Amino acid sequence: MSLIEELNSQYTELSFLNSAAAIMAWDMRTYLPSKGNEMRAEALGYISTLAFKKRVSDELGSILEKLSEPETYNSLGDDEKAMVRVSAKAFKRARAIPPALYQKFTVLTVRSEKAWEKARVENDFEGFAPYLEEIVSLSREMASLYGFAENPYDALLEGYEEGMTAKRLREIIEPLKKELVPFLKRLITEGKAPETELLKGKFSRKAQEKLSHKALKFIGYDFEAGRLDETVHPFTIGIGVGDVRVTTKYQPDEFTPSLFGSFHEGGHAIYEQGLPAHLKGTSLYEATSLGIHESQSRMMENIVGRSKEFLKFFYPHIQKAYPSNFKNVPLKKFYRSVNSVKPSLIRIEADEVTYNFHIMLRFELEEGLMKGDIQVEELPARWNEKMKEYLGIEPANFSDGVLQDIHWPSGMIGYFPSYMLGNLYAAQFYAKAKSDIKDLEGKIEKGDLKPLLHWLRENIHSQGRRYSPEELLKVVTEKELDPEYFIRYIKDKYSHIYSL
Amino acid sequence: MSLIEELNSQYTELSFLNSAAAIMAWDMRTYLPSKGNEMRAEALGYISTLAFKKRVSDELGSILEKLSEPETYNSLGDDEKAMVRVSAKAFKRARAIPPALYQKFTVLTVRSEKAWEKARVENDFEGFAPYLEEIVSLSREMASLYGFAENPYDALLEGYEEGMTAKRLREIIEPLKKELVPFLKRLITEGKAPETELLKGKFSRKAQEKLSHKALKFIGYDFEAGRLDETVHPFTIGIGVGDVRVTTKYQPDEFTPSLFGSFHEGGHAIYEQGLPAHLKGTSLYEATSLGIHESQSRMMENIVGRSKEFLKFFYPHIQKAYPSNFKNVPLKKFYRSVNSVKPSLIRIEADEVTYNFHIMLRFELEEGLMKGDIQVEELPARWNEKMKEYLGIEPANFSDGVLQDIHWPSGMIGYFPSYMLGNLYAAQFYAKAKSDIKDLEGKIEKGDLKPLLHWLRENIHSQGRRYSPEELLKVVTEKELDPEYFIRYIKDKYSHIYSL
């Protein structure tokens, strides 16, 4: 075996362990009977530990060391070089944390998630605060071990969005704030708000399921390489080559969450289904980053799914599915209703315009925690200040505020920014796709998304993990990340909808 | 950690690997999208190999060696001694086969199953024969490595039914043949055969599913620790503690296969659900043997499921589910129809009376192959002779004869006898249960199977793997295996049904 083959054989074994863990996790959230939970958690923990051991094994380290020697490295092809780069980086990062600390952190987050569930129900921030303090403290310790140039937050960000820094995030956020905070105020005070009551009613599960299937087929999701099931908190999971599953939740009184949720998860799923098959079992058979992943879901959910063009094609299906609700509702009215903007307390329920503000708030608080500028006990007060500043509202309790998300209890500090980056990447990618594909919007109006899928496959999905997110953006759009694309998209769309 | 704790820690890890493999296998046969098959097979193979390596590891060997030293062993409690006995036996057996031979055999069986699938469709015994020859040859090699006193077949049998030998099987089979071959002839020539046409018709999937659920609940299957799904070849699988799943198949033109199939799988499942929880993660948290397992399924499917008493309770539910089919069919007529006896070519479709003959035939051929008395090329001729002798019929092609089962292509020589043993054990256990439980049949008539479930839990399920099958039989029934119980059961039941 050549060294590269040895490396890939390690990664292939890792892909099998990950695949086992993934089907166990999928089942846990869809079909596992309740009494099986305890043993499943233990067995999944065991398989995850095997995978972790493989990621930090001396064997892998020695292969990577040999491959990194200049003479060897320089003799490799481009893909092979990328394999080594990606693997060596992941190896170094995984090895930076001593097993005892890793273990301590894992045990802590399991307990912390449990404590958070209780605290959220009981609106008890004080009860949860000690866990969060410990998570912040260990996260700071880990950041030092990962290493960073100026900001400990960067060391955590790197785990979710390679190459991203707090400094860069602030540069990106600045124009967003400057342009969109006043724009949001104008929408609310001067705009003509859509009606939204018409989206409420009674919606059969069966018809929702059918619409979700139709939506997934429309965006090119391959049902022979995946499936759609119901769950409590919808997610997409790549279980292996040819097996990428989506989930959704059918609410009896509203059908748009399952419809646009299916678009969202479907966007993630077509990405995974489009990873480069010939690179399976290597470190490149993976998405570029969380942010790039999110760009695919947000593009499908919002830019495509809530567009005039798509709804022109799809709304008749919705009317057919729910005639008593929509037969007398004209398309324009429906289009406006699913694009209503309203500052709200809960991130996951936020519209396109307000969503990023929720992320900025979390980023600023996380960064403060990591630098030691903010203490855990101050979080609720800071949270409310920022909600007021960005959205003009404040939560009446902790559960709708600082306790709403699972990310902190799970120890995932640094994760949130990828949600915002996803929105920005999506706008920039889509602008490029529109300029590359002749009459894209006309095609969508006719129900043909194939040209866009083809474009995404060629430019993004098939790249796997070859590039860092910023490199990919440059390769595809010939530009650095520029929040202007998003700002323009939002202003154009919503000025029109709100008749500004 | 004590040595026993070390042993159990090895077994606990093994239970996690087995649990991962089990959910992967379950999913493969229920929900896996078609394009995911290839990677799933590879990943499952990898996890299975990890489990195999654990079973033969030097670490486990050294723990067992220490535990087997007389002084240490004698200081152990009864359960602990059993743990060591069971583990040491399994270890010795697994280590008897060199990894290269094991690998060769595994690769061969994968190819052989594929070749068999094709051969069966094309009715091509010659095309499949070379694979079977190789399987027989490697099986003989493995039998020598396992070791045996007089008959190489015993070495294979041991892998499925601890302590069983070809000699003992012949002793058991002799009275079965002597009594039941002539009895079958009498049934057919002199008996009044039931009508069976009434079982054909149109049966909605939904109603079948409901009946299967009802049947499973009736026998005490715990849906919080399992679930029922659809598949092509129904099976039961223990995925972990609190998670034992059953599957069935709903045929549109007949509902009895899914109903009695659910009884059968449910019988297996309540066994696994009743394993001793306090012994989880040890070598005793397992069924006694395949034969004992089959006794539970056959008891539920036939002795209970097709009994007058049970049907007196359950038939109204069937009539309610399919009023147009059964509202004018009296109970007695229905009872007779599901207990019709007819020599047939396919084992898995055989009734209670003829089923064992299919097994005898396979046992006699397998033993001949292993001893070298029969050559693979002779199999079809020998098959037909024996079919004629036991059942009075002959297949018109290989696919309905020697090519019908997957066991030989899969390399599972020695497996079949456990099916027959299951029938015999079931009759003997049930006779004892009837004498232990006051008015068991009256209780079943009233729809109350709890006393029987309780009896099975206490006497069989909760024993786990403490005893060998013959020991268990003695502990529970105070007798050696005696085919008379089965013979009497069959003669009583069918003399009555066929008005002999």
Short description:
2 copies of one chain form a homodimer. Chain A is an all-alpha fold and 500 residues long. Chain A has helices at residues 3-28, 37-55, 58-68, 70-74, 78-96, 99-122, 125-146, 152-157, 166-190, 205-218, 256-273, 290-304, 308-321, 323-326, 331-337, 352-371, 379-391, 417-436, 440-445, 450-459, 469-477, 484-497, and strands at residues 228-230, 236-240, 243-248.
What does this protein look like?
2 copies of one chain form a homodimer. With 500 residues, chain A is mainly α. The first copy, chain A, has 2 domains: 155 residues, no CATH class; 341 residues, Orthogonal Bundle (Neurolysin, domain 3). Chain A is 64% helix and 3% strand. Chain A contains 22 helices and 3 strands. A 3-stranded mixed sheet of chain A has the order 1-3-2. In chain A, strand 2 and strand 3 form a beta hairpin. The N and C termini of chain A lie far apart (66 Å). The model of chain A has no long low-confidence stretch (mean pLDDT 97).
How many helices of chain A? The count is 22
When the domains of chain A are counted, the total is 2
Which whole number gives the mean pLDDT of chain A? Answer: 97
Q: Which chain pair shows the most residues in contact? A: A-B, 38 and 37 residues
Q: How far do the termini of chain A sit from each other?
A: 66 Å
Percentage of helical residues of chain A?
55-70%
The CATH class of the largest domain in chain A = Mainly Alpha
Dominant shape of chain A: globular
Q: Give a count of the beta strands of chain A, DSSP E runs of length 2 or more.
A: 3
Radius of gyration of chain A: 23 Å
The fraction of residues in strands of chain A falls at under 5%
Which oligomeric form is depicted? homodimer
Strand order of the largest sheet of chain A: 1-3-2
Structural class of chain A: mainly alpha
**Describe the biggest sheet of chain A?**
3 strands, mixed
Protein name (chains A, B): Metal-dependent carboxypeptidase
Catalytic activity (chains A, B): Release of a C-terminal amino acid with broad specificity, except for -Pro
Binding site for Zn(2+) (chains A, B): 264, 268, 294
GO biological process, one term (chains A, B): proteolysis
